Each structure stands twice: as structure tokens, then as C-alpha cells.
Hints:
Chain B has helices at residues 25-50, 56-82, 88-91, 97-106, 115-140, 147-174, 178-198. With 210 residues, chain B is mainly alpha-helical. Chain B has one domain (25-198): Ferritin (Up-down Bundle), CATH 1.20.1260.10. Chain C folds into two domains: 3-98, Zincin-like, CATH 3.30.2010; 107-181. Chain C contains six helices and four strands.
Amino acid sequence: MRKFFPVEELARDERFNKITMRDRMGDPRTALNVSNDAPAKRPTNLRLTPDRSDASDGARSLMHGIFVGEIQALEGAGRTCWDFETGTEAPFALKLDMARQCWDEARHVEISVKLSDWMGGEIGQYAENTVLFEAACSTDPVLRLAGVNRALEGLAIDVFTTMKEFGDLAGDPYLEFCEDWMLADEVTHVKMGSDWLRKITEHDPDRRKKALEFQSVVDKLFSYGGTRSESQESPIGLARRFRELAGFTDDEVDDIAQLSMQALNERKSAVAQARADQMRDAAAQFATSAAAE
Amino acid sequence: MADPYKPRAPFAPWDRRTLPGIFDVEESARRVGNYKWAEMKLFEALGGWVATVPELDVKMRLGTHCYKHAWHAELWHKRLPELREMNPERLTAPANDAMVRFVEAMTEPEAPEQTIEKLVGVYRVFIPRFIAAYTYHLNGTSEITDAPTVRSLKFILQDEFDDWRDGEMILQSLIETPEEASRAAAHMQQLEAIMIEAGGIAGVGTLGAS
Amino acid sequence: MTVSVTPATFSYVAFDAELIRSIAAGLLAALGMADHDVTIDVDETTPLARISCTIDESIHVHVDSGAFEDTRKPRQQSETATATALGRVLLRARDRLVGGFGEAPPDKELSLAQVAAWETYCIGRLQRFGVPVNQQRWRYNFRNRHGFSDATDAAFEQIWTSDGLTWDQLNAISESAAASAHA
Ligand SMILES: [Fe+2]
Ligand SMILES: [Fe+2]
């Protein structure tokens, strides 16, 4: 078995369809409210709450996203056990933490399968975006911990908090219960990332800087399209309290909040631009065909 | 109630533990170091394989078992200083070169079609060898002087039996044709041959003088 | 019967207007609605999955591209999703047209619980017409709108297996389920 496993080769059974971030970014459609489009056409509040008319479908789709995210988190933690030589490349205790995370993520996959079933979802029903595992492909274990444990698992904290609130409001007895348990595990995983980042880079400010930059890149990628931010236009909120428990400082949470809003606004202006271009093309086409007649 | 000041035997009639054991401190530490090395290699391989197996149930089992072996490695890591090895890394070593070759051969399969080979290596060769080595240690060591090792061995053996059963049942459900049975047997034979050379997890004499 | 689909060609998604048209025509025939004209207007600029319909001389369906999409393969069309989404609104239109649903509020004024009850009624019938559906998906939706309780589940089963309900009957089942769940 090779060291460092390419994301394209992640093994899946035939129910799954993997897509990349590039595929996702190639989708010109958007669920966001864009001001130059008919203003009343799209809702401004997209936060996933039970009072949304598509709440059940939205929750089911998000649950499938959680499910495949857990698989990739499991795979990523597993690869960190294998890819790095103990002692010379990664401390023994760090690898023990990663093995522990494997067990936790395996449980999360089990929980997500059962919850999906309960919500009327099916395995492989939605395309699987493999961007999460991509963050786990770094050749520096510290970057991996920053990208996966702090950025990715930080996002998991936000997602689980949103889902837990959804379950609570809807009165779903299993959803709220399970999300609360998974949330406890994810806080532990983020804390592992925070602790190891500080410990390993204690005397290596350059490496720490690089790791934090990588985390920021991953954070922005996961905020792509404004999926997660403090704005009600984002389906997923930012869970400040749990992030603090997981070792994020106030400044760090503020940075992520700012970055997410930036991603939301960038996406909105990109969509507005695309719409304007399309209208211009349509007008030109109309003018050409009118002239031909 | 009985008189609390009446002398009682220090070992109750049902406590049949005896003092003698077949390992001295040094031999015990050497074996524990071999165990730790082997458990580490096993948890690393299980973790690495998770991404390579398409079967969802196998993926989840490998992830779960990965942690258990990491925990065993941690128990042995903590036991080493108690056995007078203040630098646990020094004894964290393979029993011999054949053990290194065994792990290399066991971790060779990577392709998504090789789940049978991966599981055969772990559950039909490696884990049975752990069970044998740990049982020999448990039966042979002093129940009184080496009680901490005995306690760890009992916890670990419970895991090994549970995981062996899990793995064996998955294998039985994956092997559906005579050709697949041959594949499993051929791979097992190849690995067993190296393991015989190694003599077991703790090297020649893992199960006593040969 | 005429069925027209706009746009005729899609640029944001790989949908086939003719496939949409033929699925709609098949449903209209199966539902005994062959004497109705239908227009289907697909908003391909959004991946949301909303679908609604207005009725005058014809039935006008307005749908977001997500409603016809194969969720496994983004931007590709799914025949099952198309049939489920169209069947759902066409059955609701049929209920309004054939009578017994005169008391039903306009679509925009339906509460979330009423929408869920009516959808349960539509999808249950659609399954009996042979459209593949995941019943648990709709049960979960019904529970979300009526509370998670045995009474809710019993109400769901009653609606799912019914054929000749009136609006008043449907609404009464929905209301009593919600009341007992929140009691
Ligand atoms: Fe997780
Ligand atoms: Fe996690």
C-alpha cells in the first residue's frame, strides 16, 4: 500500500457518485438571493430551520452530506495513521489521537446511516463532494491537522449545531439526540487539532504560519458559495460557543466569520455577473436573429 | 459479623494464584516491546486501508478496529517504563527481520478488489498470532509479580477475540466462490510461510522453546 | 391535450424538454386528465426544488430545476424525480378540478401541515400508479409538520392509503394528528 492516497481513488461501492469541487463550482445555478434578479423570487432566509418549506428535503440532503463527510473524515484520519513514520514524521501520541478519531468517525458513519434511513434518505442518493478528503492529502501532518481537524471539523461543529437546532425545533427525538453526541466528539477532534498545532509548531513559527494559512484556505473553500456564515442567507450558521470549547480564540472565530461573509458576497457578485452576461448574450442573440429576419 | 481482629489467611481459599512465572523482567519487557511494535504496525495498516476498501461495512469495521490496536500499543507503551525500560522506543522493535517482511507482505494489497487479501492477512494470520502470543504470556507469567501485564493482556485478548470474530464473519460473507476461497488460501499460505520464519509476534519462542 | 415545456433547450442543466413533455403526457393520461392542456415552465437558474401550479383554462406548472434533477448527478435530469414532482402537482390540480376540494385554500395560503398532508395524499396515490417512491421520505416530512408521535404515524397511514378524500376529510385528519401530537 502506497503512502499518500490520491483523492480520485477513494474506494466506494456502486451506489456512490463522486464529484470534485471543480464540478461543483462549474454549476452556474445558485440558491442565493441576487439583487439584480427578480428580488421577490428567492427567499433571503436560507438558514436550515423547520419552517422552511423544503425543510425535510434540505435536512435529508444535509444529512447525506454529513454521512459522506464522516466517511472522508474516517479515511483522512486513517491515512494519517499510515502515511507518516512514527517518531520521525509524526509523534506516537498524535497517531494515537488519529486512531481514536478513526473510531469516532466510524461511529459517526454508523449514526449518519441510521439517521438518513430515519429521514427517508438512501445511501448514495446525492453526489459526494470529495473536497473534504482533499484537505487530508497534505504531506505535512501539521497542515493536515490544521486543514482537517480545525477547518473541516470546525465546519462539522457548525453543521451539527444547525442540525441539532433543527431536530430540537422539529421535535425529532433522534436527530437532536444524535447530533448532540456527534457534536461532543467533533469538539474533541477540533481540540486535538488546536492542541497539536500549538505543540508541534511551538518553536517553528514558519510552519505554524503555513499551517494557519492552509487552514484559512480550507475554511474559505468550505464557505464556498456562502454555505456557512453568520448571515441568515447561509443554510448553516457559525457555532461560536462550541468553537471556543474546541480551542479557537475569539479572534480566530471572528476571522472565520469574516472569511465566510466574504465567500458569501463573492459568490453573490459572481452570480450577478454571470446573470448579467447571460442577459447580454441573450439580447445580442435576439438582435442578431431580429436583424436576420 | 466475624471478628475483624481474628487473623485471616492473606490468600483466600479461592485465590489460587501462584508466585512462579516463566519470564523475568527483561524477557517480559522484550516481549512487550515486540507486542507494541506489532500492534502499531497493525493499527497503521488498518487506518491506511480504510480509504482503499469500497465495502462500507468493512470501512467502518477497519476504522473501529484501528483504534483498538492503537490502544493496545498505548497500553504496552506505558508498561515498558514499569519494566525498567525508561526509553520505550528502544524496545519498540520487531522481533526479527522476518516480522518486518511479514508486515510488508501483509500491507502490500491496496487495490479495491483486494479486500479479501487485506482481511485474510489481518484476521486469519496476524490476529490469531496475537491471540496465541498473548495467551501464552498470560498462562506463563507470574500472576502475582506481573499482575499489571496480566490485566492488560486480559483486556487486549477480549478485543482480539471480538475483532477476530468480526473479521472472520466479514470474510465468510465476502468469500462466495471456490476461486475466492483459493485466493484467500493462497494469500494466507504466503503470509503464514513468512510468519513461520518469524516464529510469532515475539519471534522464535513466542509460544515457548521450540 | 397539449403539453408545452419552456425552455425548449436548456443551458444551465442537461434536461430534455421532450422527456419532460412525454412524462407529463403519460401522467395526464394515467390520471384521467387527458382533456387538459399543460404548460411547464422550468427555472433552470436555481438548483432549488420548488414546484407550484396555477389553473385557468390550462394548468400552468412552475418548477425550479432541482425538482427534476438527479441528485446523484448534478445538473442531469432524473425521470423518477420528474414524474414524482409533476405527478404531485398534477394530482393536486386534479383534486381541485374534480370537486371535493372547493374549500381548500389557494396553494399560497396552505399551511405547512396542510401542504404535507396533501402531498402525502398525492404521493400515496402516485405510488399506486406505479411511480417509484420512498415512503419514509414522505412520512418524515409528515412527521416534521405534525409532530413525532404514534397518532401522527396513524394519520399518515390513513392518508397514504386513501383514494377518495375530500378537502374537509383530509384537513380533519391533519388537524387531529397535529393536535394529538402537541397535546
Ligand atoms: Fe465526525
Ligand atoms: Fe470528526
